[in-house]
Amino acid sequence: MTRLILLNGAPGVGKSTLARRWADDHPGTLVCDIDLLRTWVGGWRESFSAVGGHVRPAAQALIGGYLPSGDVVLPQLLANGAELDAFAAVPVGVGSDFVHVVLRDPAGDVTGRFRRRAGDDPWHAEVQRLVEDAGGDAVIASHAQRLDALVASRPGTLVVDSVEGDEDGTYAALVAALGR
């Protein structure tokens, strides 16, 4: 049976990196990266948040359309229970499974990781600007707290430590968690 694997976590914790690595090791797996989908919409820089609201239903349709053919991995921060439920309903609707994985920084330094985050992805600078405009470190800390509450309320959630600087070890932990 195919499955939607949601890699959830605070910004900068390694969701997209691990999603791409998972897909590389599991041919036929689609990486549905909502942040990348945003960049396909004209004017995305000027309305990053609004575009995200429009792209999420499109991502759900893409996921639902692809799952009969293969697995989908979704690297996305979903700290709102209703949004999470909307994505979790997609695989159920097409006879697939849903696996929710939360990546956590075991050092508890999600704000530092976000600040040190590097990448060539076009949306990184925009996300950093939006976080600064919304309150900086307090925004990142709030996401981490909301994720902790979400994990506590959903006992089936898999939690994987994402160790900064140890992509191989973190990936091995993800593989082990998904293999159970």
UniProtKB/TrEMBL annotation:
UniProt name for this protein:
AAA domain-containing protein
**Classification via InterPro entries:** P-loop_NTPase
Q: Which domain of life is it from?
A: Bacteria
